[in-house]
Description:
A: 311 residues; mainly alpha; elongated; B: 545 residues; 4-stranded mixed beta sheet; globular
Amino acid sequence: MRSTCWLTALAMWASVLCGTSVGADGAPDPIREGWQYVRYYEFDRAEPYFREVLETAEANSDRWKEATFGLAVSLHHKRPPTASAIQEAAKLFRELAEKDPNEKFAPRALMNLARIHELRDYFQDVIELDKARAIYRKVIESYGDRPIVDEAVLRLAQSHINTFQTDQVNQGVKVLTDWLAKHPENSLAGLMWVYLGDVYFYPLGDSARCVAAYVEADRRNSLEPGQEGVFYWRIANLADSKLNNRDLAIVYYTKLITEVPSQGKGYQSQLALKRLGVPEEQIPNLEWAPKPKEREQMVRQAPTTQEVAQQ
Amino acid sequence: MKKFLVQNREILMNGMAAVFLAVSFVVSMIQINSVHEVYFDESKKNLRIAHWQLESGYRDALDHIIREYEKLHPEVAIHQVPITEKFYAQVVNTHLVGGTAPDLMEMGMSTMVSQDQYLQRYFEPMSGHVAKPNPYNAGTELEGVLWRETFIDGMRTAYRPSLQDYFGVPSSTFTQRIFYNRDLFRKVLGTDEPPQTFGQLLEVCRTIRQHAEQTGVLLVPIAGSKYNSPIFFERYQAAFLAGYLSELDTNLDGGIGGMEMYAGLESGVFGWDSPPNQAAFGLIRDLSNHFQKGFMAVGREQAAFLFVQENAAMITSGSWDAESLFRQADFEVGIFDFPMPAGDEPYADQVRGRTSEASTGTGNAYGIHRYSRNKDVAIDFLQFLTSKAMNQQFNRDINWIPAVIGARPTKELEVFMPNPEGYTGTLYWFWGGRSRQVYDGGLTAFVQGEIGLDEFGKNVVDALQDNDYGWTRAAQDEFEAGRNNVRLQEQLLGILNSDALFEQTYADHDRRFQEAMIRQVRADHGLNEYIHRFETELQGKLRME
Lengths: 311, 545
């Protein structure tokens, strides 16, 4: 008895010293430990903690469900991926979603299951697009008022577009444009405009729609962070060389100089502005590493897309 | 006595060995104890900082900052752990695996200190810390500015998109220029003004060579080496080949990828015989004639030695070498930018322009060991090191370029400040490991006059067109890397979505989720686009799965 007390005290001290999570009984809580390893991408180390919980937790209790979800996530993502791990993850996600569809994690379990069907996870894994699409549709139909539905719509569209067959790509685009028409301010609207821009660019080769989609995404401040320069360059070049939209080209060449000076296209944009006949004094200077306030000032000086639209 | 020694020789020898062993043991214990006293002084918070910067001045400069910090925080003791470049990876990797890694480590030089899968496991993610102002900037124009925004690149270089976090805090910036011996220039050329054009540079080289021949002194115009010379080659190649961007950049991302280059080669947009390419390699060959013989077998230190010993009039290197060269040279060192052909000089009609340094990032970054016992002190020290005043002091002491906005280098280093004017997005004559190997080997032989331009070109094009190890292998490797990236993004989404349901660790979950989704969706689209382009544009026979 005395030794048990000592061991418990020692374990408590150890957990305090190590800064680990402590459960209500004073012992480290394996479920928190498991999630901590998940956050560190150490899925293989998280797995045993969730299994440990499942051995002791009451079946179908909140704790049991959380551990089941944690185990499924760990199995889904641990490297290297194996057929047995992925199949077990799929089984767990399916059970969770079917047992209580009203649980907060049920639609996420369904989405994860659909991703397993859609992606090739391990060597000789079979892609099951129809199964994945059926699940995305189920999420759209069953959870109409939750943001995860927007994600299901995007994934459904992606499952068509990724085939790169023209009719399928058009079908995917229709899924997105229909949804945006009905829900223009949905939680992933900005991303949907970016994606539409990408798809119009390639494989559809529709420069006008591509530029319009990117400009809309830019208006929503939704371009991929850190990659703004790539979008600006693409918009400016398409507007300049394919669409003969001088004004829009000027806006985006200017943004390349003023908003993203460190992304490397400032000088080439200056040359383009000269070629487009912009007076010398209106071409912004190249600044390397302007101070935050100067940068703000430079951005303000550049015309916005709205201003150009008004012109 | 002698008899005694002979009779007891074995006992005496064993005794001596035992005494030697005992003495060694005691000395070792004293040594261990003294090290332990310094590094594990329990009355203080000890911080170890490992780096591979053995250039002149670096350790002194860092030591200066450490002493300043310790004055403010007497409860802290910071110890430098300098390790040579050669062993940095081994030392750091071993300690990371063993859980005994230094609290702060310079980022790079080892896969475990640079690749995403290890960073997430062993290093402290910094996004939470860099999203607050640096308290040591109080009273300056950077007061109240987020820590990450106080860096000239907004910490772009330290950001890992796949992990959505910052790993490491930078302290310096680096560019490359040409160093020259001003005294020698005055003596031989009658002026210490650096050449303004490539034609003038060649003229300077010829004059110096003539001077060496006439006087019999051991002197070459430029100190070359396998380390320094490629800096020259890359700069000048980009100056000629950047013009292909408008024709080859079919995905309009602002660069010429391997597949775009190969598609251009196969469709005849450019070739080895294209005038800009011939001009680029012609110029490189002209320049190489003014390096010492066998320069591609010479290392970095030997080339620097040649320069500081006044056996070479010029050398190219990065700002990281400036202080070493200033200290070691007994003459006045000047610095100038790579001059371009101009006017009616040879190659001028094919040159596009200089290479832009607008996207020069920051470097010499320090990451924090995830399991450091003094993480708070490590973060505080990095804030101190990268405050405007200290970053300027630190970089002036080493003679490097600061990484913090508003901090200025020494006057002599001003010429190294990045110049945003110029082109980005050039063409490279390799795609994948095998063609890179052939290209590098061929370039070495070409610049040393061992093979001609035509033979060099044939080898390079053959390597690219090789159906087993050339273009198809390169595409497969790129595809594999792309697929791993998509999978990593999928993992990140899995983590964020689970966290939102059960843990709610991230206050900015929505931003993180949106960012991860956009990257994952675009990376996935990019991967499929890659396969589609490969199959349609290159008519690939290989089906990638």
